[in-house]
Amino acid sequence: MADTKREIERKYESDDAALPDLTRVRGVASVRDRGVTHLDATYHDTADLRLAASSVTLRRRTGGADAGWHLKFPVAPGVRDEIRAPLSDTLPDELAALIRSRVRDRDVRPVVRLRSDRDVRHLLDDQDRLLAEVSVDTVHAERLTGEGGEARWTEIEVELADDGDPDFLDKVEKRLRKAGVRPSASASKLARALAETEPGTASASTSSAQKGAPGTPPATAPEAAPRHKHRPRLDGTPVTAGDHVLAYVRAQRDALVELDPAVRQDVPDAVHRMRVATRRLRSTFRSFRSVLDRTVTDPVSADLKWLATELGADRDQEVLAERLTQALGRLPADQVNGPVAERLAAWSEARHHGAHHQLLAVLDSRRHLRLLDTLDALLADPPLRKKAAARPDKALAKAVAKDFGKLSRLVEHALELPPGTERDTALHEARKKTKRTRYAAETAAPALGGPAEEAVRDMKALQGLLGDHQDSVMARRTLRELAAVAHAAGESDFTYGVLHAGEAHRARAAEEALPEAWRSISREFPF
């Protein structure tokens, strides 16, 4: 069974491997020598280094107190989540699943071996509690693929103790800098090893005394330049309508890939965020058909709709469970009859377990992995239309205005209907169009600035109002089902009726607030 540890550390290099006196760091009462440990780690990746390109590391390590398989995902500069699994000869299935969105069907194999002699010291406070671990690592790197060479260097690593204050690392760094120690130019040992053992590297054996920043691992599946004459500036700044749309598409593709491990680990809100990225992609393809050829994007949109539906089974249940649990908690004790909380919790757990199990199968399916490959290919060779080369201010603003026009017709139609099922359905359709308009405005915001940002705010407010209404519709349906089950079991269904009445009141409040909210938005909408 794998476990996860948040790792906060900083790396340094120096012309002199000796450490300064660290008892002079504020808060450090003593420094305890923990001796030298020999570590032997083999790093695994695809032939085109897909994991390294996204700053993900996978290794099998022996030696030290944590021998086993280690998978590290970047969180922020100097912060990574390390997922550990017991030592075995082959990659554990649970870790293989967590890298699947990045490696797809590519084989993972040994690429670099790092052997390190780690001289460890513990920084302790006046109560003998661990503040940080400081190590001087003498590293020997060996490339295991192609005709790569070897490299050697020495580095200093400072890792914060579990639940430690990150500000403490600043105090340690201040002391190290005074002693001539400088931050490492490389983010990780693997990145440095890949750079310094690359076939054709001038020096096959490198020491920490040599100057110059080591390179970074090569990009994975590099995207080709767009097939139109208007391209982003050399600094990556989008300059055409097509550039802005592709930048938004790329960000959502990245979100799908990066959120996959979190969804598999059942991290709170991960399913919701992945579903939003899926919807944003689909909406972008539909809103900007004048920029991207729909004969190419329509089949992709169909797969995105499928994925969003699969994600929705878990997400919708999650939203409902939270909403009903909170509503139950607000009721006075004399209105709660029977084991309502227990039945609600059992319903939630059973639905979530089944939905999550199904979702794992979806993420491992050939259709999902093919979708990710298709998005990569679309970004590498985008199906740009003539208007993709147009100025972004006009082309993007026109797309937002067009979506808002469609939204206007839907809202006005819903407001003309009497309360009931038909109006509920119409308001739900308006909610979906509100999201599409919001995502179009998000795409345009980097180019259009204030007006687009205002449109995003307006759509978020409208989305919240319509969303509360739709959640009430779904909650009332669920309460009727739960009441029927409770009644069949001989339990009181009174509390379910109280909750149902409360949800009906919330729906009416949303409907009553909508006309004025819509008048304000439509009167001042900037497009």
TrEMBL record:
Bias (Low complexity): 184-194
Domain of life of the source: Bacteria
Comp. bias intervals (Polar residues): 200-210
Gene3D superfamilies: CHAD domain (1.40.20.10), Hypothetical Protein Pfu-838710-001 (2.40.320.10)
InterPro entries for the chain: CHAD_dom, CHAD_dom_sf, CYTH-like_dom_sf, CYTH_domain
Domain CYTH: 5-197
Compositionally biased tracts (Basic and acidic residues): 418-429
PROSITE patterns: CHAD (PS51708), CYTH (PS51707)
Domain CHAD: 238-523
Region described as Disordered: spans on this chain: 177-239, 418-439
Cleaved signal peptide residues: none
PANTHER family in the record: CHAD DOMAIN-CONTAINING PROTEIN, SLR1444 PROTEIN
Name of this chain's protein: CHAD domain-containing protein
Organism: Streptomyces sp. R17
